[in-house]
Every structure is written in C-alpha cells, then in structure tokens.
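tmp note - DMT family transporter
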Amino acid sequence: MVLAVILSGIGPVLVRNSPVDPAATAFWRLAIALPIALFLIRRSVLLPARSMVWAAVAGLCLAGDLCFWNAALMRTTILEGTVLVMVYPLIAAIANYLIFKERITKRVAIGGLIAFGGLLLMVAGADSSGGSSLSGDLMAVAAAFFYTGSLLISARLCRIYDTQIVSFWVILWAAVGCLPVAMLEQRSLPVTQHDWLYVIAYAVLTLVSYNLFNRGLKIVSTGLASLMGYGQPVVATILGYFFLAETPTLDGILGSFVIVIGLVLATRQPKGKPDEKPDEKPLAPAE
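out:
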C-alpha cells in the first residue's frame, strides 16, 4: 500500500509533461495497461453478472476521476490538485451514511469541518498568476467525488474476488469512459517514438500501483488505506518542486496542512481499538 502511494505520487508530474492532452493521457495509460492486466489473470476472466455491472460503474467513476484530475493538474498547482482530491475519505464517510446507514462519528465530523476550512483557505487563495486557479481546484474536488464512487465499489469487489480480475474490468471500463473525452482533444494520439515510450511507461506504472493498492485493500481497511494516501500530495509536491520548478503559494501550503490535519483526525483509528475488519458482504442490488 505504501509503495502504491509512492508510485501514484509520480503521476501528477507525468501528467504535466505528457505528450498528449489530459483525457488522452488517462485513456492511453489505461488502454496500454489492459493487455498486461489480462495476461496477469490466471483464472477465468469473468465475474458474476451483477458484479460485472458494479465493476463497470467503478470503472466509469474512475474515468471521471482521471479526466477531471488530469485537467485540474494542467490548471492548478500539483500541491493543490493532489491535496484537494484527497477529500474523498470525507465524501466516502458521508456516502456510507446515506447508502449503507453507517453512523458518522464525532471524530469524523470534527475532522471534516477542519478539512473543509482548509479547503476554503486553499480555494480562496487561488491565484492564476501563481500557477493555481479556482477552476482547477474545483475540478480536483469533482475528481474526488468520482474517485469515492470507484473506491467504495472496488474495495468491496476486491475483498470478494481476485484483485487481478477486478482490476482488469475496472481499467477496461475506465478506458471506455475516457475515450470520448480524449477524442475531443487536440493532442489525442502519441506521434513520435518518444511519445509512445512515455505513455507506455506511464501505463506500466499505473498498472503496478493500481494492483498494489487493490491487493492492499484485501487486508487493509478502507479508512487506513485513505490515511496512507495522504502521503501522495507530499511525494507529488516534492517532485513538482524539483522537476517543474513549481513553488506552491503560502495559502496553498497552509490550506494543505489544515486539510491533511482534518483528514488524519477524521480517519485515524482510536487508540486501543483494532483496525476494522474488511466487509466481505457481497454487493446487493440496493448497493
């Protein structure tokens, strides 16, 4: 799980330097990874019919996440783009309450309010002359909503079925979802050999990090996985500073600290209590 987070932190820098536009970057990293994902499956490639539908929904949600997030990274700073998308644990907590009737604890509520305050601080300080923008920040928040849907469904599927099979179908439908948006962009196709090598390398990195993350979901609770994910903005910001000469604004740094503090408070496990057991209840139609 930790290695998956570190590898994912490289993604924002690769999106910025990609030879194709944001949605096309998302499509090619997924489409090229598909044959490899299929090769890694050692058993039947199919899931039960109902689970196939849920895998499709998770993949389309992932497509929305990648399209919005990649577009956000081209409009705002890497720090703001990666931190704002990390509000998904709070969105997941609210979604679990509305869908699965899971109670929102006082700890989650307080942490959520703190994180929301940091989000307002970051968005209010957005300045296009400094590399950030309000539109980019809002796109990152929209990506968080889509990622929440993908994570909630994928986590349940991975605890029931082979992670390689789940990964294949989620990636397949994510590629399908990204394709229409990619076709509307100007730079939708890699041209030179360097371009193809770039997107192929990004695809391999995507597949490795995604499979590591899904394998971790088998034994790590969703809340703890979210907590580990807070390291991604740190990795992405450090790389952005050294490779893109991108220095975050003071409001961006302060807002990021506030958001991370709130998210850590909201998702940390209380002392003396073991980590929650993964819910292996199969997906029902109401879910």
